[in-house]
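[Discussion] Sanity-checking designs against the backbone

I'm trying to build intuition for which residues belong where. Below is a structure token string of 502 positions. I'd appreciate it if someone posts a full sequence so I can compare it with mine line by line.
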């Protein structure tokens, strides 16, 4: 493998020749067009600037004339069918559609929307050639519903179907996807996922509620998903970085109009396999109201930007300008900046709900965690594939947690009863950013020097190279709960473990 990821396998796709700006976007103001031209001029050197990671170049998609995707949906009534099957989807504005693995032939899959405490009923059907599960990323739920193939349930065989019912106890923005550890990277990269929105009993009043799923796809020259999953390079280095970034599986930027003075809730998900995506908010007044689904003390992000690891969600409230005709932009910090979403004020001023409180009601998470009584466990992350490692490489043992690759693990990280406070020290002894995902639980990020904590909860946590990050949580229901790399390519390479709640 190459020491410089920019030289590696998935070459940039689009030369960005003559971007065919649609009239819709042209009339929406010159800034986007100007930015795109600027972006095009710099695409050859485009690099992720976030999290200290290097990346492959991203060819920035040309804008399409396609209508905006379905950004909102009605609540689910009755059982929602989720049939996994191959489907063609126009990720790119021209050329052949890309063959994906989708739920219900859409990408992202159907937006599931239920009220907190109401039952969600899903009929999962497997129409692909691999076994699948349905994992509810970030939700606190009974362990038998966590959907980790081989750990919490038998995966669903090709051709089989299974009904899944539960009443979510947590309001917020969540990600559903297949989760068979050895296959999760491929199945997620091919599109087998969607968003679950669990509505609060009394949500903050807004004029629009938009779901924004970000993904970067590694496409081959023919526009199809680049083959070659589970390679030593993808598992052992930064992971499978794409060369085609989409918003709700459409080429960006998306555009949306809202009344002057209106308030928009954005529900962001980074569905990429491996790429942390940093966003900047230009000419938009932004407050973060939830992270990883759970309400946070509302805050304005530092430098008006926010980084999302793969699997992270963030709910934002955007307050629009009081005048008509003002455009604000959500921009991905790739190269000189890639506009993802334009929000423009249009029409008569909104009878604004702006005076109302924007903090969502809580989900009953504990006000305090008795850290003095906590079980303290070290989670030492090791491994990686140094440049120029000669073959053969044992890809299932590239990464280890406390010295053991997942394939060799026979015992849980720890066992504890329900309701037990736990502090995990996540010790990153690798040379790369690690992103760990805690199943079925949500954790407080502790301060470095004491047991103070950040005013939010997370289930997908960044651990920079060489650093230690401590998290605290209280054990939930009985069962085996996975802690796994949120950079999905590393899952089959050993970066996973589990703990047992008795
Ligand atoms: Cu998950």
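Best answer:
Here's mine. Compare freely.
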């Amino acid at each position: 493998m190459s020491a410089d990821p920019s030289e590696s396998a998935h070459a940039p796709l689009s030369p960005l020749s003559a971007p065919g700006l649609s009239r819709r976007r042209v009339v929406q103001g010159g800034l986007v067009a100007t930015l795109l031209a600027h972006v095009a001029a710099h695409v050859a050197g485009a690099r992720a600037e976030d999290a200290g990671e290097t990346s492959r170049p991203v060819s920035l998609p040309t804008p399409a004339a396609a209508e905006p995707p379905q950004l909102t949906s009605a609540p689910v009534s009755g059982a929602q069918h989720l049939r996994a099957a191959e489907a063609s989807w126009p990720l790119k504005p021209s050329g052949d559609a890309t063959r994906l693995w989708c739920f219900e032939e859409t990408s992202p899959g159907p937006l599931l929307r239920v009220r907190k405490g109401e039952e969600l009923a899903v009929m999962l059907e497997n129409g692909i050639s691999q076994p699948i599960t349905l994992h509810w990323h970030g939700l606190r739920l009974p362990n038998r519903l966590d959907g980790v193939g081989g750990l919490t349930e038998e995966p669903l065989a090709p051709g089989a179907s299974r009904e899944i019912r539960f009443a979510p106890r947590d309001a917020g923005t969540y990600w559903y996807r297949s989760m068979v550890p050895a296959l999760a990277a491929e199945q997620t990269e091919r599109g087998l996922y969607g968003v679950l929105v669990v509505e609060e009993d009394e949500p903050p009043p807004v004029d629009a509620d938009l779901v924004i799923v970000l993904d970067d796809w590694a496409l081959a020259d023919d526009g199809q998903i680049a083959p070659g999953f589970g390679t030593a390079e993808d598992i052992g280095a930064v992971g499978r970085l794409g060369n085609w970034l989409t918003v709700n599986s459409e080429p960006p930027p998306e555009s949306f109009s809202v009344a002057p003075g209106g308030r928009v809730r954005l529900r962001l998900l980074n569905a990429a396999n491996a790429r942390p995506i940093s966003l900047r908010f230009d000419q938009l007044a932004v407050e973060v109201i939830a992270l990883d689904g759970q309400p946070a003390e509302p805050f304005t992000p530092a430098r008006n930007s926010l980084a999302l690891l793969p699997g992270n969600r963030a709910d934002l409230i955007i307050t629009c300008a009081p005048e008509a005709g003002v455009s604000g932009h959500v921009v991905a910090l790739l190269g000189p900046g890639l506009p993802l979403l334009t929000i423009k004020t249009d029409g008569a001023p909104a009878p604004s709900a702006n005076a109302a409180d924007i903090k969502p009601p809580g989900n009953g998470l504990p006000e305090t965690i008795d850290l003095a009584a906590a079980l303290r466990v070290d989670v030492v992350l090791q491994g990686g594939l140094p440049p120029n490692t000669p073959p053969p490489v044992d890809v299932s043992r590239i990464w280890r947690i406390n010295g053991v690759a997942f394939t060799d693990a026979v015992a849980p990280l720890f066992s504890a009863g329900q309701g037990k406070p736990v502090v995990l020290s996540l010790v990153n002894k690798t040379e790369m950013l690690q992103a760990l995902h805690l199943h079925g639980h949500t954790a407080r990020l502790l301060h470095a020097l004491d047991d103070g904590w950040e005013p939010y909860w997370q289930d997908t946590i960044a651990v920079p190279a060489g650093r230690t990050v401590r998290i605290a949580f209280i054990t939930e229901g009985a069962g085996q709960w996975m802690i796994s790399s949120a950079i999905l390519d590393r899952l089959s390479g050993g970066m996973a473990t589990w703990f047992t709640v008795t």
